[in-house]
């Protein structure tokens, strides 16, 4: 019996390369754990533009609204740099997030023991690191109006608007508090209430929501100082909640703490559907990596870990998600490294597919 439906959108660049490894893992779960999914596949980003002239076809959007979970690889690439803004590959992803109303973007940054030496920070700063960034994903300066490039006083002006309603802040704050309750019961909210009214409101609303979670220790930080603290002593954090743009920046910083962008997964969650499961899209934090696309060098772990998040958050298969994460830990402990994780001289990198092979072997050994 199928445990649910999955729409796979490999996208562009290394997206299809890393997603091919996820497909093999999905097949393994079907064969060996009895977890079969109704899988369909479609186009997003530049690949959708090439076929349909838009980065996300309406039929694909409609399918995404119906499935239990969407898995996305990555979008974008230099081939599409000169396209009109309205049809750029990234707009396809933003449309999915907005129309599915995926307001809570969970970006965990965990340091695998085997990679504790690999970060550009000292080992004791990152060993054992396990933080969760909750980024607001459907509002803020990414979507606020007015926006555009206008002409004023004979010169052009580029405009974007940071805008948050109380209810938008309230719902993402609640998601973050709920996560904090299941983790270390610490939440740090980041904004710039010192210079932005939207930050003042953000701080007020988060403080109000905190009354419903008396067990969670809430702190506030200006987002710039938050970036500095992430680089100085990241283990002071448990859950961080922040807006769309700050969350984009801070999660790339957090990614590098753990070694490589190729390691960081994400879950974007919305409201519960009729079956009780949240609307959900899972994707690695990294992009289409045009510099290494087509060379078999991409690290598939971020995308595979994103599938592990799908098992946990959409399909209530936490134990199977743990199994997959443990298999990845095993493979890293064996010293297997894709090129992005190479620090030491004389270690030969494994390819994307070889990394997939090793993870499948470790899964097999876990039975
Ligand atoms: P990027 O994440 O694609 O690449 C940044 C660097 O990290 C590159 O050197 C790349 O080789 C490396 N890298 C990223 N993922 C890797 C992996 N899995 N394995 C090994 N190395 C990896 O970011 P960018 O270069 O700023 O953006 C390239 C394109 O991707 C742009 O069009 C951008 O808009 C898009 N993008 C898409 C997403 C997404 O689809 N969610 C996210 C970020 C960027
Ligand atoms: C991310 C990416 C996206 C963002 C782009 C590709 C739209 O950088 O998912 O972090 O800015 O949100
Ligand atoms: Mn980003």
UniProtKB/TrEMBL annotation:
Domain Isopropylmalate dehydrogenase-like: 5-359
Example of a GO biological process term: L-leucine biosynthetic process
Quaternary data: Homodimer.
Coiled coil: none
SMART domains hit by this protein: Iso_dh
EC number: 1.1.1.85
Species per Swiss-Prot/TrEMBL record: Maritimibacter alkaliphilus HTCC2654
Site (Important for catalysis): 142, 192
Binding site for substrate: 97, 107, 135, 224
SUPFAM superfamilies: Isocitrate/Isopropylmalate dehydrogenase-like
Gene encoding the protein: leuB
Catalytic activity: (2R,3S)-3-isopropylmalate + NAD(+) = 4-methyl-2-oxopentanoate + CO2 + NADH
Chain positions recorded as Mg(2+) binding sites: 224, 248, 252
Signal peptide boundaries: none
PROSITE patterns membership: IDH_IMDH
Keyword Chloroplast: no
Cofactor names: Mg(2+); Mn(2+)
Job of this protein: Catalyzes the oxidation of 3-carboxy-2-hydroxy-4-methylpentanoate (3-isopropylmalate) to 3-carboxy-4-methyl-2-oxopentanoate. The product decarboxylates to 4-methyl-2 oxopentanoate.
Manner of cofactor binding, per the entry note: Binds 1 Mg(2+) or Mn(2+) ion per subunit.
Annotated Gene Ontology cellular component terms: cytosol
Name used for this protein in its record: 3-isopropylmalate dehydrogenase
Subcellular location: Cytoplasm
Gene Ontology MF annotations: 3-isopropylmalate dehydrogenase activity; magnesium ion binding; NAD binding
UniProt-annotated binding residues for NAD(+): 77-90, 287-299
Family, per entry: Belongs to the isocitrate and isopropylmalate dehydrogenases family. LeuB type 1 subfamily.
Pathway: Amino-acid biosynthesis; L-leucine biosynthesis; L-leucine from 3-methyl-2-oxobutanoate: step 3/4
